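quick one: zinc ion bound model?
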Amino acid sequence: MVNVSQLSLSTMFKNLILVPAVLVLFGACNSKEKPAGPTEITTWQYGKNAAVSLTYDDGSTNQFAQALPIMNRLGFPATFFIITGQIPGSQYQGRFIGRPVKEIIRETATQPTNRENFFERASAVGFLGYQGTIDYHTQAGALIDAGKEAEAYRVIDEVYKKVREGGFKPGYQSNNEVAEAKGVTWDKIREYAKQGHEFASHTVTHPRLAALDEANMLYELEKSKADILKQLGPEYTFSAEGPYGTENERVVAYASKIYPALRNRMPEPYLAEINRGSKMQPGTAKKEYVQWQRGATTKTPLPLMKSWVDTVAAHPNNWLVLVFHGVDDIGWEALPHELLAEYFEYIKQKEDKLWVATFGDVTKYMRERMNAKVQVSEKDNKVLVNLSHSLDPKLYNLPLTLKSYVTSDWKTVQVKQGEKVQRVQPRQDTKGTFILYQALPNAQPVELSGI
Ligand SMILES: [Zn+2]
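yep, here:
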């Protein structure tokens, strides 16, 4: 649990600005104190200093066989961005939405690739009925993500020429990410979800979304969501990650209409996002919240990985989003599970300062808090705290941590919301006696009383 020394000066200062009148009113008198002081929503759950999310991309099989048991042992929930098309029982597999591909192939003989026809060709190229063409989609998409359109067009011209000349064997061959994810089943995923892990979309086939036309991009995003909804339920359609960490504006605009939370990018004005490639330090961003993404690869030394944790623990508003891919030789940049175990144990040692939670839960916490209202009133020597927010209550139903200042006469505080009753021991900081407790927003008022 948090103690006073961990709260930054700026947080305290801000709270002072928010509630000076109340502080004067209730903070100064000694003999007959009123029960109520100010109540605030702590920056992170349980009043912790920072949030940490462990996220895994692609759903390669050792993430579940090797990494998941370590996290279960330590009580850490993770977020898995899964490729849905290859999971047995999924309704939607990879395909091209559009004209017969033979027409497209024929046109490429006389019309070079340009801005008008690129997206259709790049969408179709993996599904022409040949093995090996999907790599050209990936390559062209990477060039689009890098802003190199002319080079992307050349890659597409090259692959269609090779197709016309009979350079590929017939059939279908997926990309590596799909191949390495083979083995997991919806039954298994449901079991892992019950253990507290979040499952989230990483599309149907792991394409370069920036290279797809509208119909195919929507197919990848919407049909992945449809299968997750059918297999896991609406709770798991909250978060998504467009493959390859794309920040392409067009992709983000489409995807954010379909998924409430994207690890790629989020629109909140109060949130600074530092992506995996950035050298910016999270302590320098001047926003209410800072999301700092770090990707651990085989080239990342463990001491550096540990320093990320130390950095966020030292700031009051940081959210460290760790991005992992392969584990034990399966998947991109696979890390040995022994290294992950040592790293997660390091995080565990700092758990008094860190809230380890799924990507979806941290997003919900920030959004609820930033859109919440707290009203405090008194009645019959009890304090009533009303917590509400303006967001869709079906999506945003995470309890928030409240910090209420109460009279020092109360040696133990009963916290009652609806049927739920708990007893909390008050603590002290420079502003007075306070309690930390969780409250459900948009529910009955929380009743605090001294016992
Ligand atoms: Zn991926």
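The pocket of zinc ion is lined by residues 57-58, 177, 202, 206, 243 (CB under 6 Å).
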